[in-house]
Structure formats: C-alpha cells, structure tokens
UniProtKB/TrEMBL annotation:
Protein name, per record: 2,3-bisphosphoglycerate-dependent phosphoglycerate mutase
Keywords assigned: Gluconeogenesis, Glycolysis, Isomerase
Pathway info: Carbohydrate degradation; glycolysis; pyruvate from D-glyceraldehyde 3-phosphate: step 3/5
Classification lineage: Bacteria, Pseudomonadati, Bacteroidota, Sphingobacteriia, Sphingobacteriales
Function, as annotated: Catalyzes the interconversion of 2-phosphoglycerate and 3-phosphoglycerate.
Species: Mucilaginibacter mali
Length: 229
C-alpha cells in the first residue's frame, strides 16, 4: 500500500478578497502562511516523510509546499514544478470579485463557470495583460498550450500527462510523494483518480492546506482517502 499526499495551497490574498485567481500569481495571505505551517506540523505529528514533492509554477503553491517541508525539516527533497499543476485558467474572470460577478451575471451562471466541468469562463484575448504568453515561466509552452480560457475538462487533459509521466513513476518506485496544487488542478486529478462523474465533481470542494491522504494499492487504485487533522 502506498500513501500519496495531496494538498491545496494555503489561503491566498485573493482567496481572502474573494476574487477569481486562476493563473494570476498571487501570494499567500498571512493566514495562508499559518495554514501551510500547520499542515506541516500535522504531517510531522503523524510521522510523514517524503522523497519527492510536486507543485505548480505559482507562488501560493510553491510557498505552501516550502513551508510544509520546512516544518518537516525536509527542504532538501527534490521538488518538481510544472505549469500543468497550475490552477484552472479563469479567463476574463481573473481578478473579478466573485460576489460582484454574481450580482452582474446571476448565481446560476457564476456557479456554472465555477463548477460545470464543460463550461468555459469568458475568454481573454492575446492583447490582454493577463495573457500568459508573455510570461517567461511559460516560454517553452506551445501557443496551443497557453490558455485564453479553460474548463475543468481541459484542466484534466493537461494535468494527466504530468501525473502519468512524473508522479506515477515516482509512486511505482516506492517514493513517498506530496503534491501541492490548487482547488481545480486537484479537482481534476481527483475526478480522474476517483472516476467521478461530471455531476459528482461539481460537489467536490477542497479546503486550503489540509493534507488529503490517498491510500493506493499496487495497481494505484484507491483503497481509501481521508483528511489528516
Ligand atoms: O479563483 C480561483 O482560481 C479558484 C480557486 O480559488 O476559485 P473557484 O473555487 O471559484 O474555482
């Protein structure tokens, strides 16, 4: 049996301000920093240790993983960062306040944008300041890989190659891995791992910085999962 730890980053400044974030590189709030430290202490209490870490290229996740590893005195383990673990790209909603969006577009539309796996948020154009194509960290992506908007189904499609190419081989080599991601990149992974229907995944809400333990059998099928508190 293998244990894999999934964890969403701690609260970000825009989580706190209730704004759509997506690929915007927003920092942790003070509360988010404390949450990350607490997550590390919880993992330490239960004697967890890791051989490898995986995270996105966004600082709220990178820092959360860093503070967790610091609590475990594990800053030395290899950490692989990939845009494929980024939050879902929220298009033209990025930066908008979620309550203001509800007032403008109605709760049903906003809820669809947020949770319907096949619904696209309004797209940006390549001229928009939020277009990731001018950001150095994405310079090796093809134009097709750089989103103007993204739904959860597409998030799954770009998370899975990273899961299959890097995380699965590490698990198969008996490495203990921790994956620090985002609400929707983890939702994408869990939809795949748990074979959740489109309907069921709409109900999946993932709290910030609470370690979520996946116990997997030899074939990497889920035995059970639970939060560590
Ligand atoms: O704003 C975002 O990028 C995400 C996560 O905070 O929001 P939501 O939960 O609405 O998908």
């Amino acid at each position: 049996m293998q244990k894999v730890v999934l964890i969403r980053h701690g609260e970000s400044i825009w989580n706190h301000e209730n704004r759509f974030t997506g690929w915007t590189d927003v920092d942790l709030s003070e509360e988010g920093y404390q949450q990350a430290k607490r997550a590390g202490q919880i993992l330490k209490k239960y004697d967890y240790n890791f051989d490898a870490g995986f995270t996105s290229v966004l600082k709220r996740s990178i820092k959360t993983l860093h503070f967790i590893l610091e609590e475990l005195d594990h800053l030395w383990i290899p950490v692989q960062k990939s845009w494929r673990l980024n939050e879902r790209f929220y298009g033209a909603l990025q930066g908008d306040n979620k309550d203001e969006a509800i007032a403008k577009y109605g709760i049903q539309q906003v809820q669809k944008w947020r949770r319907d796996p096949n619904e696209y948020p309004p797209a940006i154009t390549k001229e928009d300041d939020r277009y990731p194509g001018r950001d150095l960290r994405y310079k090796n992506l093809t134009e097709r890989e750089i989103p103007l908007t993204e739904n959860l189904t597409e998030t799954i499609d770009r998370v899975l190659p990273f899961w299959n190419e890097f995380i699965v081989p590490a698990i198969k080599q008996n490495q203990k891995v921790i994956i620090c991601g985002h609400g929707n990149s983890l939702r994408a992974l869990i939809k795949y791992m748990d074979n959740l229907s489109d309907e069921d995944v709409t109900k999946l809400e993932i709290p910030t910085a609470v370690p979520w333990i996946y116990e997997l059998d030899e074939g990497l099928n889920r035995i059970r999962h639970y939060y560590l508190e």
